[in-house]
Design goal:
With about 210 residues, the chain is of the alpha+beta class. It is about 40% helix and about 20% strand.
């Protein structure tokens, strides 16, 4: 039958049942009995990719009508026809979303414990985690942080400190590196090339790689 409503009852002797749509192959209404006895209704799609059967939730029948779910299911199944695997892509996206810039920064800071002076670590924590410099980006998945985003934060940091942003700057390393270079290095978006000049200072080249 063609699914037009989610108002379908689950037989009392079953814990789960699929009602497959007659018009769109792979589209179904899934009925499942929860631990509290309540029947959970979800729209799903089922397909094969890379020799394996996949099943993906389109959405809850409480929030999506049959027509809305069918429209979304058609999009997902069209992607399958084009050789994609929506369920696998969703899992990859979920895993990447767990790796936010904040998580990368924390790992970076943890790697510096015991390897640099306590005061230097405090500066890094401020510039990368506690201060305003990276705050807008900390919750963003690291693979979605673009070079232009890092460049914008570097510019904002320099304006906040009344310092000019230059391609090459000469300044004490403990001031320049935390504020500018490390900000980009933590995400692999910028690069520092130190050159000692014999005076305890570094010529730091900040390369925003477009």
């Amino acid at each position: 039958m063609r699914l037009t409503t989610a108002d379908v009852e689950l037989p009392s002797n079953k814990q789960e049942q699929f009602c497959w749509d007659a018009g769109l192959r792979g589209f179904a209404l899934r009925l499942r009995r929860g631990s509290d006895g309540r029947v959970i209704r979800q729209w799903v799609v089922q397909y094969r990719a890379a020799g394996r059967q996949r099943r993906m939730i389109v959405g809850s029948a409480e929030t999506l009508t049959a027509a809305e779910a069918r429209k979304q299911a058609r999009r997902l199944l069209a992607r399958v026809e084009l050789g994609e695997d929506p369920q696998a892509d969703k899992a990859v996206r979920r895993e990447r979303d767990e790796h936010s810039l904040r998580a990368v920064v924390r790992d970076f800071l943890d790697s510096k414990v015991g390897n640099i002076k306590p005061r230097s670590l405090e500066l890094l924590q401020f510039y990368l985690l506690e201060g305003p410099h990276l705050k807008p980006l900390l919750g963003v998945p690291v693979d979605k942080v673009a070079r232009k985003d890092i460049a914008a934060r570097l510019l904002a940091a320099s304006k906040a400190s009344s310092a000019a942003v230059c391609t090459v700057v000469s300044a004490p390393a403990h001031r320049v590196a935390p504020k500018m270079g490390i900000l980009g290095m933590a995400t692999g978006r910028a690069r520092l090339s130190p050159r000692g000049n014999g005076y305890g200072r570094l010529c730091v080249r900040l390369a925003i790689m477009e």
